[in-house]
Amino acid sequence: MTTAKICGLSTIQALDASVAGGASHLGFVFYPPSPRHLAFEHARALAARVPSHVARVGVFVDPDDDLVARAVTAARLTIIQLHKTSPQRVAQLRAATGLETWAALPVKTRGDLESARSLAGAADRILYDAKTPEGALPGGMGVRFDWALLDGFRHPTAWALSGGLDVSNVAEAARRTGAALVDASSGLETAPGVKNVDKIAAFLQAVAAS
Ligand SMILES: O=C(O)c1ccccc1NCC(=O)[C@H](O)[C@H](O)COP(=O)(O)O
């Protein structure tokens, strides 16, 4: 069975649609340049609606200790997801928070997968995400990578698939890669940061049927 993380939530409507549709994980972005960035009080109000069986994932880009600590408290995070963060720093934040910790691995070529081993020693899960253009946000850009790059790859730890997933391709992505957990953000939006409840529902139906 494939489960899904809906990332970059910022409204009650989108959050409720994600929970109602069966999402296993909800992602809250703490990165000011992102259109999905949440202030702590906003995150606190959203997180309070999340039932306990659904994981609350905080998304960060090479964060400092204070940002992570404040976000963990505000959104009662159960998982931290780290982008552009060295394996050493991933391990440090994992130890400091005591939380399940994911490390994003940007993929464009097979060679990019080489860092999986060092991240696996530091993180509980690797999130294979598409490499985004230089200067762009490291995630939430709707960029897809060639899933064939994962063919035959010996995953060193638990993993999830991300990058450009939407209702039209998620079933094929799960089938092709064998992903047990998929993650999506901009494919469920009508504009950057604006989630659409119908797209969320359709995506989660496609995941459930895959
Ligand atoms: O979503 C963001 O704005 C974001 C900003 C900075 C770092 C990571 C970010 N998102 C991380 C995610 O987990 C996204 O769901 C993932 O990159 C996939 O996004 P998309 O290709 O738009 O589905």
From TrEMBL:
Functional pathway: Amino-acid biosynthesis; L-tryptophan biosynthesis; L-tryptophan from chorismate: step 3/5
Known catalytic reactions: N-(5-phospho-beta-D-ribosyl)anthranilate = 1-(2-carboxyphenylamino)-1-deoxy-D-ribulose 5-phosphate
Span of domain N-(5'phosphoribosyl) anthranilate isomerase (PRAI): 4-206
Superkingdom, taxonomy of origin: Bacteria
EC annotation from Swiss-Prot or TrEMBL: 5.3.1.24
UniProt-recorded Gene Ontology molecular function terms: phosphoribosylanthranilate isomerase activity
Main EC class the enzyme belongs to: isomerase
Keywords attached to this entry: Amino-acid biosynthesis, Aromatic amino acid biosynthesis, Isomerase, Tryptophan biosynthesis
Keyword Protease included in the entry's annotation: no
Keyword set includes Ion transport: no
InterPro entries in the record: Aldolase_TIM, PRAI_dom, RibuloseP-bd_barrel, TrpF_fam
Homology family: Belongs to the TrpF family.
HAMAP family: PRAI
Protein name as annotated: N-(5'-phosphoribosyl)anthranilate isomerase
Organism listed in the record: Sphingomonas olei
Taxonomic classification: Bacteria, Pseudomonadati, Pseudomonadota, Alphaproteobacteria, Sphingomonadales
